[in-house]
Task: structure prediction
Amino acid sequence: MADTALHCNVITPELNVLDCEATSVVLPAHDGLVGIMNHRAPMLCKLGFGALKVDSALGTQSFFVESGFAQMLDNRLTILTDRAEPISNIKPDEARKELDDALILPSGNDEQVNARFRAVERARARIRAISA
Result:
């Protein structure tokens, strides 16, 4: 491993999406973006919705991730997420329709309000991810 690299793993329940040496990673924590470079102090954080960008010798790889956890320990970043979809696979029309559908979800009780809020936030994050 080069002195300027860190090992990055992105894992979903279905498969190991990415396993590479990265020069930097930007991930969507639940409370904002976090930048990771080699030899970062140990960290554990909850993921939110958004773009995960991994810079490596192969270029930048971008994924839309939603929820999960990221752990940095001993120059190894492990990202466990429910979903990691290449941003290039997100179609703008589908992302906008997803937002339109989320905005009309019912919000009569607390459970419905929370489900609607989460669906709207997810859809907006997907639109931001493809717009960046």
The helical segments are 92-103, 110-131. The mean pLDDT is 94.
